[in-house]
Design goal:
three-stranded antiparallel sheet; single chain; alpha/beta; seven-stranded mixed sheet; Aspartate Aminotransferase, domain 2; Aspartate Aminotransferase, domain 1; 12 strands
């Protein structure tokens, strides 16, 4: 008889990445060092006035510090239904919506619903650093599909995914606009991937957190091509400067969302009620703020890309940079440490996929534009040395 495992982390947890954004973060605290924190995806902007925590009052929102319904604050769910129908061209009813603790909570709930231990989730790479660990947390196996920097047509997109398919594949994770590459996938590519998912009986997990930051091209929700198998994740964090409020949402087939709701109820229970109230204000009154922020982000993204000799981003808030020619025997970690010495914090490429050891991710909205300009100039000097 095999003895019980002694107190220790489960093997799946041991295999999960830890400090995915900056393993050299301990260097940030050196005396007199001013770091521009471009390693974490966030915005330096505060939400618009009227949608901040300081604008919410118990007199207007009795019970705002209590739990909400596990699906979400009722008025917010209704507003999400209207938004998804109008902006994403998705047929949607209340029962197809789950408000979650950020997009992270929505993705975890979706994966907890669909994946069994040992099954595989295909992830288009390079990818948002946390998705790999979320798949592992639910005891499924992440399978990386080199994609955004390799694929140049709908046919190539399908073949890239097909090459990694096995009998254990249950889902495909897609991100557009892409974190970290800034690519906006064309509609034809997404429709081709939807056709592949239907033929191979895969779930589609569509991460559309950056839908409001499209600068070139057009955003298309893949669920419009395969609604019966698509789980789409949205967020208020990036669109409205509300990352700390922890509110996102999942949209999908009724039974699947109900299954995801079981997972969310037994993990985070509900999203923060006050955060949901702020999100409701954002949907009602935030369009002008989003438009101004998008134009500011486009300008700083283009300027940062030009300074670094990189293609301008099509969407999102990131640049993904190939720095392999600048690495010495210390590898990417030595390069990141040197950047910290220059006052610039970047995320390591390996957090976005095993094939990206010599890459770094830069978030150009995480600090005010003048700070980003100073940091990009310092990085440009290092890259040209």
């Amino acid at each position: 008889m095999t003895p019980p495992r002694p107190p220790a982390c489960a093997p799946a947890v041991t295999a999960m990445p830890g400090a995915v954004f900056s393993p050299v973060q301990q260097l940030f605290d050196a005396p007199d060092r001013r770091i521009v924190p471009l390693h974490v995806g966030d915005t330096w902007l505060e939400p618009f006035e009227g949608a901040r925590m300081e604008d919410l009052r118990v007199a207007e929102h009795p019970g705002m510090h209590r739990y909400s319904e596990t699906r979400g604050v009722s008025a917010l769910v209704d507003a999400i239904v209207d938004k998804v129908r109008a902006n994403n061209a998705l047929a949607c009813e209340r029962e197809q919506v789950l408000v979650a603790a950020g997009a992270t909570g929505a993705l975890g709930s979706a994966l907890g619903m669909l994946a069994s231990p040992g099954e595989e989730v295909l992830i288009l790479a390079p990818f948002w650093p946390l998705i790999r660990g979320i798949v592992q947390a639910f005891r499924a196996a992440p399978v990386e599909v080199p994609f955004y920097d390799r694929v140049d047509s709908a046919e190539a997109a399908v073949e890239a995914v097909r090459a990694r398919l096995t009998e254990r594949s249950v889902a495909l994770y897609v991100s557009s606009p892409s974190n970290p590459t800034g690519r906006v996938l064309p509609r034809a590519w997404l429709e081709a991937l939807a056709d592949l998912a239907r033929r191979e009986n895969l779930w589609l997990i569509s991460d559309e957190v950056y839908e409001e930051t499209v600068y070139r091209g057009e955003h298309f929700s893949i669920a419009a091509a395969a609604p019966e198998r698509s789980l789409t994740v949205f967020s208020f964090s990036k669109a409205y400067g509300m990352a700390g409020n922890r509110v996102g949402y999942l949209v999908g087939p009724r039974d699947a969302v109900e299954g995801a709701r079981k997972v969310s109820t037994h993990t985070f229970y509900t999203a923060p009620t006050a955060g949901q109230l702020a999100a409701l204000r954002a949907l009602r009154d935030g369009d002008a703020w989003v438009a101004r922020a998008r134009e500011m982000y486009r300008e700083v993204g283009d300027a940062t890309a030009a300074a670094l000799g990189a293609p301008a981003p099509e969407g999102g808030t990131f640049l993904f940079l190939d720095v392999r020619t600048q690495l010495d025997a210390r590898g990417i970690w030595g390069f990141l440490a040197d950047c910290v010495e220059d006052g610039v914090a970047l995320a390591p490429g390996p957090s976005c996929g095993a094939d990206y050891e010599g890459w770094v991710r830069l978030c150009f909205t995480a600090a005010p534009p003048e700070d980003v300009a100073r940091a990009s100039a310092a990085l440009a000097r290092r890259l040209s040395a």
